[in-house]
Design a protein that fits this description.
Radius of gyration: 15 Å
Number of strands: 2
Protein name: Putative UDP-N-acetylmuramoylalanine--D-glutamate ligase
Keywords: Ligase
Order of helices and strands: HHEEH
Strand order of the largest sheet: 1-2
InterPro entries: DUF1450
Organism: Paenibacillus agaridevorans
Low-confidence stretches: none
Largest sheet: 2 strands, antiparallel
Helix content: 40-55%
Pfam families: DUF1450 (PF07293)
Oligomer: single chain
Strand content: 5-15%
Number of domains: 1
Mean pLDDT: 90
C-alpha cells in the first residue's frame, strides 16, 4: 500500500484489525470507501483498488446526473 501512501491523490489509513474475522486469512483485501476489495494474490490488490475507486466514482457521477435530471 506504499504506492497509495506516497501519492497525494489518495488518503490512506492503516488499521490493525477491521473486525472482518478470517477475511485477511483467506485473501489479501482492503476496505475502500466502505467496500471490501479482496483478491487471490497480493500483487492484484493495487489494480483491484484502482478499479474499485473508478467504479465508485462512476457510480457517484451517475447518481449526480440522475439527481440533476430530476430537477
Amino acid at each position: 500500500m506504499r504506492r497509495f501512501e506516497e501519492d497525494d491523490d489518495y488518503e490512506t489509513t492503516e488499521y490493525g484489525c477491521l473486525g472482518n474475522c478470517g477475511e485477511c486469512y483467506l485473501s489479501p483485501y482492503a476496505l475502500v470507501d466502505g467496500t471490501i476489495v479482496a483478491v487471490d494474490d497480493v500483487d492484484q490488490l493495487y489494480e483491484a483498488i484502482i478499479e474499485s475507486l473508478k467504479q465508485q466514482q462512476a457510480d457517484r457521477e451517475a447518481l449526480d446526473k440522475l439527481l440533476d435530471d430530476l430537477d
